[in-house]
Design brief:
Chain A has 361 residues and is mainly α. Chain A has a domain of 228 residues. Chain A is built from 13 helices and 2 strands; from the N terminus they run βαααααααααααααβ. Chain A starts with 5 loop residues before the first strand and ends with a strand. Chain B is an all-alpha fold and 309 residues long. Chain B has 12 helices and no strands. The chains are: A mainly alpha (361), B mainly alpha (309). At the A-B interface, α6, α11 and α13 of A face α3, α4, α10 and α12 of B.
Chain lengths: 361, 309
Amino acid sequence: MILPMKYRVVLRRRFKTGLLFEGVLPVLSVAAALVFAGGALSVFGVSPVATYRAMFRGALGSGYGFSEVVVKTIPLVISGIAVALAFRMKTWNIGAEGQIYLGALASAAMVRYFPSGNQAVMLLTMTVGAALAGGAWGYMAGFMKSRWNVNEVITTLMLNYIGLHLADYFIYGSWRDPSSLGFPMTPPFPPSARLPQFFGTRVHLGIVAAVILVLVFRLVIRWTRWGFEIRAIGDNPRAAVYSGIRYGRNVELVLFISGAIAGLAGMTEIAGLQGRLQPGFSPGYGYTAIIVAWLARLNPWAILVVSFFMGVLLVGGETIQVIMRLPLASVQVIQGCILFSVLGFEFFRNYRVFLVRKESG
Amino acid sequence: MEVLIPILAAAVRSGTPILYATLGEILTERSGVQNLGLEGLMLMGAFMGFSVTHATGNPWLGVIAAFVTGAAISLVHAFLSVSIGANQVVSGLAVAMFGTGASALLGRKMVGLTVTGFGKIPVPVLSGIPVVGPVFFDHDPLVYISYGLAFFLYWFIFHTRPGLNLRAVGESPIVVDAMGLSAARLRYAYTLVGGGLAAVGGSYLSLAYTKMWSEGMSAGRGWIAVALVIFALWNPVRAILGSYLFGGVGAMQLRIQAAGTSFPAPILMMMPYIFTILVLLAISVKKGKGILLGSPGALGVPYSREERT
């Protein structure tokens, strides 16, 4: 009697990945995520086809939609770089959202207390203020981490909420515009505190800052001593410490710089876009930045691409909110699925899978 | 004292959802897996508990549905953390995002509805004790179950053989494997149960606390629970203390607002978070560099049988 042939799955450790593989894997994992998310949506009683179509049309179906995607890409790239810097050292800055708020808060404070009619001077003070405030927010977590080994995941998370409410305190309190008919928002910024916008769209000067940051990130991580220290700690903290790299100092510094960059995203957002500080001006950019950095595998060029893709999702999310009356949080279903899928596909990065035929009997 | 009693009773009520989530996460982390997604699990639990109760009229079915849902979502986290060895921080965030989004999407037609849910059942005799009675024994059944659960888990973790295995797999999975137990299976099991408990905590919000559903109703409690696990030093009984402390801060906040003082609301809202950081700080400073006595040695570290060293 002939027994049926059987297949056996064999896993082999993968040590090197090719360029093609690096390009194909993220695309595959996102595609799979969209399929999963589509399945989830249909289980939740929403047509995935209609949803995706509406999202696509809203984001990429018109020049306006496209420009709005770019507008959302800007803060995502900046805060994506911010968290990628910390992640490269295996330090978890989950607090970009709070740092964005602090940056915006400090910019608004500069406009309020140190106004200048000179645009260059005003924008420079706002930038410095935003970077310092965001940096301080990150530094607090870094200091507690280096000094007493307090888990930075928790502290940065908590600081998010504190930053958000701190901004509310001023917006609902003494900074509120008396002529805003009771709406919680600061008075509009003077023209000198606004970033120039381009091509008659809402795309603003922040895009230049974003591109510069990508280049600087690449340069610093790849070619400087400090970048080397960050990479060394990220790859093997113990070995790095044994070789004389100071861990504590780097944790403080990296979280400060990371916070400062995220703070900058807050500044460009209100100086380039809203022109005033109002509650909830960031739809979770700081959290989306984590997906961006992770999906991009901390590669600065990939951060640009992934941020754009996330921008499409966010603009698409606003579209389905208007057209299909779905809550804005629906986008988080898709974002969650993307993260799940990317993590799952990591498996194929680490292992090669073979189907081996074997004769049983 | 008379003035304090309602506040303390409110602290217990508002601390109960946090307690369930913290207990769940203690189990998960004791097994060596970290699940940061409690916020999403609580929201899914709140939604599932509410919708099943609304459909059946039986809040107990709602609680069970919440548990099953929480466990089901945690299965994804367990698969990624245990089988794939993926990054647990990122996977936890994915759980939080997915749960937040899915509950908002599913619950959009539930807004504005109410359920009877759980009512107060004073414990005979015990509720008559001055101070202790009204504070601890004049609540709904889910509160009483949470007391029992906390003490049961303490006994389970520290005084039983399966509890020893649980601690062992969190401390050193290779030892558990050598004992002939499956480290992976244990981690799966406790991640599922832990996620289920977090979702039960969420269902307390919609079935006993507010008796309605609203988007994002857990309002950051899930994140606080993650921090509370450290405060509790992975000890279920200490989790009771921590949860009620936070429940108390929340209850005070509502009371101060209701009293109509001019104290700004945003400052009150940030209190629990500032408090969390201070508490973590106090613990970490006290324990010094040999940090966190209860911290499972292999927390967050994936284990693969082929790659043991």
